[in-house]
Every structure is written in C-alpha cells, then in structure tokens.
Design goal:
By secondary structure, the protein is α/β, with parallel strands linked by helices. Helices cover 34% and strands 14% of the residues. The protein has 16 helices and 10 strands. Helix 7 crosses helix 8 (256-269).
C-alpha cells in the first residue's frame, strides 16, 4: 500500500556472520517439493465478502471489506535440498527490481551478488497506482520483480500482468507464517509471496503536541495546535480510506455518497495540511520538525522514533489499514528463473532477519522469528507486531474495486487536488 512503506542502514556485522553460514542454513531437506509452476495447495481463503460482520460504526452494509484475520493455510512442504543459488548456469548477470523506496537492506543485495554473482538493479516507486500505471502504459518496461501491495496484486492479476511462480525454485516459502499466505487477493498464492506486512498509522512529535493523538479525527478535523503541521500520505486509497473511516464507513466503500462525504472531509482538511508526501518523506519531515504529525506506514514510523526519541507512533483506535507487500514476477520480464532464486534467497531466515532488523517492518518469516534472529525489541513492540486477531475488525485490508468504484475514487481524489 502502499505503501511509501520504509534510519540509516544498520550495521551488518551480525548479518555477515549469518550470510557466511548461508549454505548450511538455507534449507532443511524433508519433503518432495511441489511440482513446477504449481503454488502450494492451500485451504481456500475466504473472499472479502465472507468477512466477519464488522462493528456497526465501522463498516456499512454497502461496504465489503475482507477479513483482517488471515485464514490458516495448509502448510507447504518444508524446504528441500537445493543449492542457495540454484543452477548458477541458468542465472542472469543482473536482475531488475521495481520496489518501494528504502525497502531492502543494502547488505541483502551485496550478499546475493557475492553468493550468486547477480547484481540487483533497483528503480523505486512511491505508491501502488504508479506501479500499475507503469505497466499499463506500455507493458513491462524491463523489470524482473515487483513488490505490489495486497489489493494491487489482485488488480495486476486481473489485468494479466503477473506470472505464476514456479515453487520448485522457491522451497524456502515453507519458512513463511501460514497466515501470511493464501489471502483474499491471491487465494492460492499462485503469483505472489509475502515480503513485509504492517499497518498504516499516525506518528507525532510529543515535544510539539502536548496531548495524546488517538484517532483519524485528530488529523482529519485538526485542532488549532496542529493546523498547518500535518503530513498526509500521497496515496489515494489510504487518504480517502481514512476519511471514510472517520465518517463510520469502510475504506472499501463503493457507495458514491459515502465516497463523496470522504472527499468533503479531505477538501475541508486540506487548508490545514502542510503537504501530501510519500511515507519516507513524511518520516524525514517529521524528524526534521517540518511537520508535527504524519500519516505513516509501520517501518517508516518506527525508524522515525529511533531517529528522534520524542516521536510516538500509534495505530488509530477506530479502524486502520493492515497491508501486505508481496514479491511478484511481472509478465514480460526476461529473467524469471533468477527472480525465483532471489525470492528464495530473501525467504531464508537469516536474510529475512537482516532485512527486518534494518527496515523495521514486520517480517512474515516465521522461522526467522522462531530462531530468535529478529530483534526482540521489535517483536515486543505492539505498534510493529500488533495482535491482528485481537484487533479483528479494527484492522481492514484495502481491496480492489471494479472500474465503476475506481472512477469514484479517482473523481474524489481529483477534487481534493493533490498534486
């Protein structure tokens, strides 16, 4: 979602030690891997319309949110014995990654290049819509791997933009938490694999705001002490979604009157907003003191708190977004095999832990957590690793709407006038 989902890079002394042991740690032989081109056989995830009935004020009958508590998937076979770099003769010299800004640790990239001889070239985007537009405009412009959020995976699959993953080349998928697979946007995980997940919340500087910020109302209908000091996400679905929730609706509403009401909230708020930015820029602005409160994604917010101790991050006590960013292989890429080997590399517990500890986003890699490789302070922080099941309907995935619904969101966003 959406995001931009993302401190300076952490020391990789520990990472180096982990990486030197990589060949031994990458996989544990047990079961026969799934047949090529077939995703692990999951238990069918419920569709969004099968979600538990939400709180009366949170989601109206016209809205259809997916359940915030992911279903339990049928476990995939444990990793089989495979060289960490697969068949090196089949690897390309470079791999082109289209990713969110500041969303992968440098040490991970250098380790893959050192071990497998493949250099990763990265371009960045700041929102899911930009990613989609890039591929919609003229097909794949040359990328081998992309990182779309949940609803965008669904949208790209529907548009025929993503390939199915050959799980014979990705046995480390068994390291993932089963609740991070087979979700509503890709029920059989055929074309996507979890990378990071998190929530969308509010970060604020307690040195400047001498009261508790607790809800979307605090920034959407701001009191005088924060007027002109607000950084919003330059993300259509997140911004309109927050306004919809303020009015008691779902962020997935397809009701024209509800979306129009949310638009009116943002139009009225705009004169009090410093600007609409990516999550990375919101983080930087908050740390620099250019804004006092900002809408942020989990990792960026936690990095901000590490850079400036007076910053506090909260998940609003009404309803907020829970999201999952995913690794996916776009149609038209030239290096599918190399992309799958790189995905498998990212799913190693040691590599996933290096990435999670550096970027501060929640990792879906259950083995990395189980082995104690992820910073325990991060795991204990409920703003980073919230009790998803306990929060229930207070967390809501954004879902892909049909063309008619998207037109309503586009019209509302245009009226808000965000550049």
């Amino acid at each position: 979602m959406t995001h931009t989902r993302r401190l300076s890079f952490a020391s990789f002394a520990l990472a180096g030690a982990l990486l030197l042991s990589a060949c031994g740690a990458a996989a544990t032989p047990t079961a026969v891997p799934p047949k090529p081109t077939e995703a692990p056989k999951p238990t069918e995830a419920p569709k969004p319309t099968e979600a538990p009935k939400p709180a009366a004020t949170a989601v109206p009958p016209t809205a259809v949110p997916p359940t915030a508590v992911p279903p339990t998937a049928t476990p995939v076979p444990k990793p089989t014995e495979m060289p960490p770099c697969g068949d090196k003769a089949k690897l390309s010299k470079t791999l082109s990654l289209y990713n969110w800004s500041d969303y992968i640790a440098d040490g991970v990239l250098s380790a893959f290049e050192k071990e497998c001889g493949v250099k990763i070239a990265i371009d960045n985007y700041d929102d899911n819509e930009s990613l989609f537009a890039k591929f919609q405009a003229g097909g794949n412009p040359g990328y081998d791997l992309v990182v779309p959020s949940d609803y965008m995976v669904e949208k790209m699959i529907a548009a025929g933009m993503l390939l199915k993953i050959d799980y014979a080349n990705v046995p480390n998928v068994a390291n993932l938490d089963p609740t991070r697979r087979n979700l509503y946007f890709d029920p059989k995980s055929a074309s996507s694999i979890a990378y990071f997940w998190g929530t969308t919340g509010i970060a604020y500087d307690t040195a400047k705001i001498k009261r508790e910020i607790t809800s979307w109302k605090d920034i959407l209908e701001p009191a005088a002490d924060i007027q002109g000091k607000i950084g919003m996400l330059n993300d259509q679905r997140e911004a309109i979604g927050a306004a919809l929730r303020l009015k008691g609706f779902s962020a997935n509403s397809v009701d024209a009157a509800q979306i129009d009401a949310a638009k009116n909230v943002l139009v009225a708020q705009k004169k009090f907003v410093k600007g609409y930015y990516s999550s990375v820029d919101n983080r930087a602005n908050l740390v620099a003191g250019d804004v006092a409160v900002a809408m942020l994604y989990t990792g960026d917010a936690i990095n901000a708190t590490a850079e400036k101790s007076t910053i506090k991050f909260i998940i609003p006590n009404d309803v907020s977004t829970v999201w999952q960013d995913n690794l996916a292989i776009p149609k038209g890429g030239k290096n599918k095999y190399t992309a799958e080997i790189f995905i498998n590399f990212l799913l190693r517990p040691d590599i996933a832990a290096v990435n999670a500890n550096d970027k501060k986003f929640p990792t879906p890699n259950a083995e990395a957590v189980k082995k104690g490789l992820v910073d325990k302070d991060l795991i204990a922080n409920k703003a980073i690793y919230p009790d998803v099941a306990g929060l229930g309907n207070k967390l809501e995935y954004l879902v892909r709407g049909d063309a008619k619904a998207q037109a309503l969101y586009d019209k509302a966003w245009t009226a808000v006038g965000v550049q």
